[in-house]
Amino acid sequence: MSHIEKGYYKYDQDANYIYHANNAYGPSFTLLEDQQDSYDLPIDGWYFCHTPQEACILFGVDIEDYPYLTEDPDEHQESPDVI
Amino acid sequence: MAVIKVGNNNIGKISVIEPYDNPSTNPSSSRDLDTSVERPSGWLEMPPLQDGVVDVLTYVPSGNKDFGVGVFARNGVYNNCPTHIPIDWGDGHSGLLYGTRTDNGNYAGNFGTQYKKYDYDLLPENTEIEVNGWPCRQVLIRIDGTVSGITYFNLEKMAGHQFGNSAEYGEADHYYDENNVKVYHPYRNDGYTKRSQTSPILEISASGSSINDLWIQSSDTSRGRLRNTQRVTLNVESFNPYYQFTNMGDLRHVEFPSGATAGRTDFKYMFNVCSRIKNLPFFDTSSATGLYAMFSNCHSIETVPEYDFSNVIDFGHVFHRCVSLKEIPEIDFSNGKNFYQSFSYNHSLLSMPSGFSMASATGAYYTFSYNYNMKYLPELDCPNLTDIRGICYQTRSLESHTLNVPSAYNVEYAFYVSSIKKLTIKALGSPTSFLRFIRSCYNLKEIDWKNSYQDTANATNFQEAFAYNNCITRYPEINTALATNCNSIMRGNYLLQKPPVLDFSLTTDARHALRDNYNMTEANFSGFNRCNAENMFASCSHLTRVSGIFEDYETNPTYYRSMFYKCYYLEDVSHFVVSGSTNTSSNNNRMFYDCQRLRNPPKTINTERGCRYMFERNYSLESVEYDLSASLDNSAMFNHAQSLKNAHLSGVKASIGFYQCQLGSGNITEIFNGLENVSSASIDLRGNYGIYHLHQDTLAIATNKGWTVTT
Predict the structure, then answer these.
(1) How far is B645 from B660, CA to CA, in rounded Å?
(2) Residue B201 φ/ψ, nearest 5 degrees
(3) Which element (helix H / strand E) includes A8?
(4) What is the structure's pLDDT at B193?
(5) What are B23-49's pLDDT values in tens digits?
(6) Number of domains in chain A
(7) Does B541 touch chain A (CB under 8 A)?
(8) Of B63, B70, B330, B476, which is the most buried if we count CB atoms within 10 A?
């Protein structure tokens, strides 16, 4: 299971980075969780998507290039066996 | 008789499965080849040897109406051949090899190869055999020099080469067949076209006390090849061994007087690709100087006679791919200079003779490569040997080896995938490249190399030089002072705890240099250049100490990607000054990714690039204090640093991530205070407990400076 799912997504093309937020507080806007229908998105580049996959399709990028969107931090990786 | 039971059931008989070698790793032979020397029963009898006679057993495949062949013989030298030599074409017709007598009215245009066309349907049915599954009828051609004598014969045009060339054609461009029909333009091989056709010869039997030169095929194999010839008897005075039997893939039996090759120097390709011959005759090689590919691809020979190779200089490919060769007798190889691939792919050869010497060798390129089962190789003491590239490449059974090659400067791939346990190097010749020199030697435990530091001093390329030697625990000193390429130099050395001190002063490529050295605890450098250090220590899970790098700007790599990726035991790098990364790629990231025990991070981070994901998954990191005013990209810098409680940061002007840290509202407020005014940037605080206690005024500290706060 991915660690992030629905929420607000923003693609910074220059930095080649996709931001995710449950809530986003900007200098001139506020986007709150579960109130996406009340906004006229996008605002400052923020869109609402239900999954990272949906966001990547929206931004026209390959999700394989953004592994942090799907990595689950709770899947702790143990040290490998050492010979 | 014993009763064998399994459970309550009696088992009458059992099958025993013999142990077998794994053919994918240590193949011992090629596919099964029929090497029988028995003469097939359906073949026409060959007449007894008779002085001055050449008999050729040939065949005509079914369906051929005008199957052309050609033969040539003369009595005399080149243009002084005074007598005719009759030909019996074996089908009731005869021919004549014309001499050069000036009173010979047919001289012009007739001194040369005589051609013949056969019609399969006109040959006796009782001569029919199958050749490679195809019905054929046999004909016995006789060049009869019993009266005239023969000094030379040539069968290369039995394959049809130049057949129909009017300049050599007896009656201009046509001839009359058995039904007195004029036939033009033979089809087998028009003009000068070279098609590597198969000569339709099953057996050759020649005898002539005056025959001092002959060709049973051309040295240019594209003119035709004796692919189906099984037996050759040459009871002659002399012939040139050069290419003589090459590519005779079905040759089973060959005999000629040992003296027939006396005085000859060039034996190049003599038996090349004679795949089925098992027993080679002994013959005079005492004058031989060149044996290039002489027995190459003789897949069925298991040993060779004790030839005299004492004057040979060129042994290149001489026994290449003799996959069944089990033994080489005590032959003198000591004067040879060229040993390029001389004994490569000898899968059945277990050892070289104990007295084996390459004392005069200058080149030994891949000499013993792919000898999967060779266990023993005598010490190579070769003062003039310059090229040992791949010399023991894929020697998967060799247990030890000693080299004394003080002139060797081409050493790349010398021990690539070898099973050696101990390697002794007495001397090398200052190579400039050690590319994959001792790589993937999975049993290697010891390198005895007294002059290692001097021998490596001139090298610039160490790419994978000592990589994937899984069992070795220590290396001799290596001088990398001039090295520019140290990519993967000691990668994948699972048991190596402490590599020698390395000097990367001029190194530009240090990618993967010590990667996957799971047991390595420390790495020390006497010099370090501003290089690409991607994955340099990745997965060195037990690494605890690194010195000689990150001391200042000059010892900082320009590219850090995953440099300490998953160095689980790395705790303290507080002596590091991270200051030199300039590579703008968004992949320039994850420098300390998953360093789960890192508590004391670098004391200074003063770099434009490389902070992205820098401390991601650093679960033990509790507190950091940095001036990040130089950094232009802090994305996800502290993501999943789950113990991070205090981040005392100043000068932050690029997007930064603290996803799933342990920041309280007080520290978040402090972080907001350290943010610079920006036109647009984000700070990611998702998953921190402090976000639930943020007052609007606190958020405004960040948003008023142009930041977007995400929670």
Answers:
(1) 11
(2) -120, 130
(3) strand A7-12
(4) 53
(5) 445 555 556 788 999 999 999 999 999
(6) 1
(7) yes
(8) B70
Residue ranges making up the domain that contains A20: 7-69
Cross-chain CB nearest to B494 (options A12, A17, A83): A83
Residue A78 maps to a domain: no
- What does the pLDDT read at residue B103? 55
Is the per-residue pLDDT at B626 higher than 90? yes
Q: Which chain B residues have a beta carbon less than 8 Å from that of A20? A: 686, 710
- Kindly state whether B655 is in contact with chain A, defined as any CB-CB distance less than 8 angstroms: yes
The reply to whether A43 falls in a domain is: yes
- In this prediction, residue B79 carries a pLDDT of 72
**Mean pLDDT, residues B494-506:** 97
Q: Taking an 8 Å Cβ-Cβ cutoff, which residues of chain A contact chain B?
A: 8, 10, 12, 15-17, 19-27, 44, 68, 73, 77, 79-80, 82-83
Closest CA to B711 of B5, B694, B700: B694
Cβ <8 Å between A17 and B586:
yes
Domain ranges of chain B: 53-223
Residue A11 C-alpha, separation from nearest chain B C-alpha, in angstroms: 12
Q: Assess if residue A74 is contained within a domain.
A: no
Quote the pTM value: 0.86
pLDDT reported for residue B222? 81
Structure token pair of residue B210: 């005056």
Per-residue pLDDT of B186-230, as tens digits, reads 444 445 555 678 899 999 999 999 999 999 999 887 888 999 999
Q: Which of A16, A27, A83 sits opposite B706 (nearest CB)?
A: A27
Is residue A46 domain-resident? yes
Q: Which residue of A has its CA nearest to B655?
A: A15
Chain A: nearest CA to B545, how far in angstroms? 18
Tokens of residue B614, six digits: 């820098």
If one counts every other C-beta atom within 10 angstroms of the C-beta of residue B598, the result is 25
Dist. CA A41–CA B404, nearest whole Å? 75
B633 vs A: CB within 8 A:
yes
- Supply B569's token pair: 């035991």
Minimal CA separation from B336 to chain A, in Å: 45
Q: Are B169 and B189 in contact (CB under 8 A)?
A: no
User: What is the structure's pLDDT at B567?
Assistant: 97
B634 part of contact set with chain A, CB < 8 Å: no
Cα B268 to Cα B271: distance, rounded to the nearest angstrom: 9
Q: Which among B494, B541, B702 has the least Cβ separation from residue A79?
A: B541
